[in-house]
Write a structure and sequence with these properties.
The chain has 458 residues and is of the alpha/beta class. It has helices spanning 12-26, 51-71, 79-84, 86-92, 108-118, 166-169, 178-189, 212-220, 240-248, 265-270, 277-290, 309-322, 339-347, 352-375; strands at residues 2-8, 30-32, 41-46, 74-78, 98-100, 122-124, 148-152, 154-155, 174-175, 195-199, 227-231, 255-257, 295-302, 326-331, 381-389, 397-400, 406-410, 418-426, 430-438, 456-457. The strands form five sheets. Strands 1, 2, 3, 4, 5, 6 and 20 form a seven-stranded parallel sheet that branches. The protein has a five-stranded mixed barrel with strand order 15-16-17-19-18. α12 packs parallel to α14 (352-375). The two termini are 26 Å apart.
């Protein structure tokens, strides 16, 4: 068996794409390896949402060059950076053997055969027309031993926000037929998966034969599925029907990632986000009425072109008002071909030190809020879906609550079990406690020794 190491950067979509790459390569007798040092093939599955992700990719390529020199390993770059910057990658990194975009995952065996047979560098970044695109079908055995798994329900985005490169790297929205999604969910239960997360760049604009709310409800009805999650959403697609699904179906977990991006209407307008802060808050209020215990997380860009001190204060105040359970906040970095990059000189750049100072203030506020929210669970007993050994202490277990909060606890519940855990302490990012009970296990369970290799994610 030849060994493949896939280094994954970015979002859940990329993590899911990495699994499909591994499945495609299994037909060539490649098996996953957790380290690049003994790999015969190294693939970087890249993200271009932020400039920092590209820098990490180039740094990693520098490290893997030594493996190529010592072992003759092939090196490929896939994902969004590959789609957007293929020529720059080939020029800057002459030891990269092939470059391929997100639509070319199924062609990986063919690409590698061309590299090996013809000794040429191969580029495969052509778009597949929306009408012709076929979503890769997951092999459930790849997920054997996991309690939770991703299912891709759509790709691409039609919103063209002025800061976002996704339309240029993932293309237009294409929805997967709902029958395929339900079939994949059912197949995952046969190897022990009990929770699925439906993923896409903008899942609640799903048009795969039924509405996204209906897709969630039907997925929750698949025998063996106990929990359903999804990510990511655009506020303008938070429909009353989707909110109602939260009210009537307890298997839809009490967590909603709803990116606001900024708390200033002026900034939102320049971002091409077609909602105001008031409209965002109105939708959020309805959601919290339907599911009072829901945890809301968000994305925020700090230092967007033209952002004044007053604009930032509005974002700061919004964070305080909403009391997000968590947020992914980053300083703005211009992305190629985006509207903001082309108009930054006109709107006005925010100095880097100002961006950093604002980000640090926002992060400090969010940390305080997260600590306060998590501290409220101390003394309570929560239900946790067990995912394995704790990443911070292998002698403990870990899983997540319905609100998507990580819980590290003392106990012996197997992977896939729903355990009751009494919370004894809390931090900004996790809860800690001890197991007090565990449900009787379902008929289909997988020994922990059979857990699939972890994906390397940056």
């Amino acid at each position: 068996m030849k060994r493949v190491f896939i280094h994954t950067f970015g979002c859940q979509m990329n993590v899911n794409d990495t699994m499909r790459m591994s499945e495609a390569l299994s037909s060539m007798a490649y098996s996953p390896t957790p380290t690049a040092d003994n790999a015969d093939l190294i693939i970087l599955n890249t993200c271009s949402i932020r400039e920092k992700a590209e820098d990490k990719m180039l740094s990693a390529l520098g490290r893997y060059r030594q493996v190529k020199l010592q072992r003759g390993a092939l090196i490929g770059v896939g994902g969004c950076v590959a789609q957007q910057e293929k020529n720059r990658i080939l020029e800057r990194v002459p030891y990269v053997d092939f470059v391929f975009g997100p639509d070319a995952i199924q062609k990986l065996p063919e690409i590698i055969q061309r590299v090996e047979a013809d000794r040429v560098r191969v580029v495969e970044t052509a778009w597949v027309d929306s009408e012709s695109y076929v979503f890769p079908t997951a092999n459930p055995n790849t997920s054997r031993g996991k309690a939770t798994e991703f299912i891709t329900v759509m790709k691409g985005c039609d919103n063209v926000c002025s800061f976002c490169v996704v339309p240029h790297t993932r293309g237009r929205e294409v929805s997967r037929p709902f029958t395929e999604v339900l079939k994949e969910a059912a197949s995952l239960t046969t190897v022990g998966v009990r929770e699925v997360t439906l993923v896409g760049q903008n899942v609640n604009s799903y048009l795969g034969g039924i509405s996204f709310a209906q897709l969630l409800l039907r997925t929750a009805q698949v025998p063996g599925i106990e929990r359903v999650r999804f990510t990511t959403s655009h506020p303008h697609d938070l429909s009353d029907e989707l909110i109602e699904a939260f009210r009537i179906e307890p298997k839809i977990m009490s967590h909603f990632h709803l990116p606001v991006q900024a708390g200033s209407n002026d900034v939102l307008k320049r971002m091409r986000r077609d909602y105001t802060v008031v409209e965002y808050l109105e939708r959020l209020a309805k959601l919290r009425v339907a599911r009072p215990d829901i945890a809301v997380t968000t994305d925020i860009i700090v230092g967007f072109p033209g952002e004044s001190d007053e604009d930032f204060e509005k974002t700061f105040q919004l964070t305080e008002q909403v009391r997000y359970a968590g947020q992914f906040s980053f300083v703005y970095s211009p992305r190629p071909k985006t509207g903001a990059a082309m108009r930054e000189a006109e709107w006005g750049s925010v100095p880097h030190d100002v961006k950093i100072a604002r980000l640090e203030r926002l992060n400090a506020l969010q940390k305080r809020i997260s600590i306060e929210l998590n501290a409220a669970f101390v003394g309570q007993t929560v239900e946790v879906l067990v995912e394995g050994s704790s990443k911070t202490d292998a002698s403990r277990r870990f899983g997540r609550t319905g609100q998507n909060t990580t819980v590290n606890f003392d106990g012996d519940a197997p992977i896939g079990a729903l355990a009751k855990v009494q919370i004894g302490h809390a931090s900004a990012s996790a809860l800690g406690g001890k197991q007090v009970s565990v449900e009787s296990m379902p008929a289909i369970m997988v020994p922990e020794a059979e857990v699939a290799p972890e994906v390397c994610v940056a």
